[in-house]
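ok so dumb question maybe but i'm new to this and my supervisor (M.) told me to 'just get the structure for Ribosomal RNA small subunit methyltransferase A' and walked off. so i did the thing. is this what she meant?? sequence i used:
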Amino acid sequence: ENKDIATPSRTRAILEQYGFSFKKSLGQNFLTEPNILRKIVEVAGLDQETNVIEVGPGIGALTEHLARASHQVLAFEIDGRLIEVLADTLSPYPNVTVLHQDVLKADLASATKEVFDTSYPIKVVANLPYYITTPIMMHFLESNLEVTELVVMMQKEVADRIIASPGSKAYGSLSIAVQYYMDAEIAFIVPKTAFVPQPNVDSAILKLTKRSTPLVEVTEEDFFFEVVRASFKQRRKTLWNNLTAFLGKDDSTKLNLEASLKECEIDPKRRGETLSIEEFAQLANSLSTWRK
Ligand code: SAM
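this is what came out, is it supposed to look like this??
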């Protein structure tokens, strides 16, 4: 236990040994609190029949806890300087594979097929680099990987946007993009003091559980998400203004849009932020019956 990578003293020793300097541009804030790491593993509900993908292992603080608790760990690290450190710090854990890759450019399907020696369920557990939280989340959600759960640390503000309900300020296309696929809840809040260097914002552990079927039934998925994004494009504008900007302002489009809104019993003067995900689905399904 004393040899944990994530204790403040061992972390300091490792950083010194390698003369490591943090790159802010890569979102490098390392966890140094074993208690937080244990809680993350607990929330993720890992066991010896679970495979784990980690994004950004850093010096291996979280990785070693994942290695102890799961079957295999596949970690993507973009910073070449850390690859050398990880080879050392993670040497006691033969069930860990670190790939020197930008996770956003990684072919997740082939990497997992190559590295994981079983088809156990896959969970993503990570302390995300905050400058690309959303792209990473979407990369996993939109991949065809059989990921059953994501337990990810991010800025609390982004976690709040993901779990937001209609009518709140934080509700937007990100809430819908994630809630469409996953059941989302904040597991716990992490204070800045748990990191070196300390970030400027509070962090939250978000737990996302894959739904067996998407939250709503849509006829054309891509079009549904386009309608959602268009409806939030200018938050202060009405649905009518945002949707005519997206679909077209000619007379026939306007007539069709009017009819669709009426069919769905949605007042054109409402703002996108007041629509539930069900209402967006209904609306997109109705629009897709007439748009070319
Ligand atoms: N997991 C470690 C911890 O909890 O202490 C480090 C977390 S730190 C917030 C984010 C890590 O992601 C850094 O190690 C950083 O180098 C890495 N990273 C940044 N961008 C990345 C990318 N595009 N692909 C893979 N790793 C990346």
